[in-house]
Design goal:
Layout lengths: L1 H17 L7 H13 L7 H4 L10 H14 L13 H11 L2 H22 L8 H12 L9 H18 L3 H7 L22
Length: 200
């Protein structure tokens, strides 16, 4: 239980570091806020947990990249990680509900990680080794030592971190196995985003 508490605290700190930064672009803040809003209904959304799920936004290759990167953010320990919690589905859902501009920025950042991975390791981010993926993410996490050309990757990683954490801790795995929820936090139905600008 101590490990779970430590991990929970660490992830909350990570989430806090992913938002509220003075240089954070609007699209990162927007996707972070939307993910937090949608997280209230993640575990109860049968669309995200069904066996016949298909991405609405991500291509198969992009989905593989999101699966791999989100699992590095919340890896499997004695409790399942982001992959088992199907965080990629949550992220795809948030992107589908986001504005076209915010969605395009996220996908541009994801494409940047593929390009940088190819230049460093000779393979897309989803195809390279876990060790190489970690090397690249550590570079992006060091925001105090970033060349201007890496900005797209840094902003993408910040958005991905916050969306991954929101998705994980609102999934059935995150709620029941990690947080010990007794079911009271589950919602009976999926209501979608409450922000007026996302209605209609």
């Amino acid at each position: 239980m101590t490990h779970r508490v430590d991990r929970r605290v660490a992830l909350r700190r990570l989430a806090a570091g992913a938002v509220g930064v003075a240089t954070s672009p609007t699209w990162v803040d927007s996707l972070t806020a939307m993910a937090q809003s949608h997280s209230q209904a993640h575990a109860a959304n049968s669309v995200l947990t069904g066996e016949d799920w298909t991405p609405r936004v991500l291509t198969a290759r992009q989905n593989d990249a999101v699966v791999a990167l989100s699992e590095l953010i919340i890896p499997e320990t004695e409790t399942p990680g982001a992959k088992a919690a199907r965080v990629n589905r949550f992220i795809d859902h948030v992107l589908a509900e986001a504005s076209q501009a915010d969605r395009d920025e996220f996908l541009r950042g994801l494409a940047w990680t593929d390009e940088r991975s190819r230049s460093l390791f000779g393979a897309d981010i989803a195809s390279t080794t876990t060790e190489n993926q970690i090397v690249l993410l550590r570079k992006l996490a060091d925001e105090d030592n970033q060349p201007p050309d890496d900005r797209a990757g840094v902003d993408f990683f910040r958005a991905l971190k916050s969306m991954t954490i929101s998705g994980y801790y609102s999934s059935e795995i995150g709620l029941r196995q990690e947080l010990g929820d007794d079911g009271q936090l589950f919602l009976a139905e999926f209501r979608g985003c409450d922000h007026p600008e996302h209605q209609g």
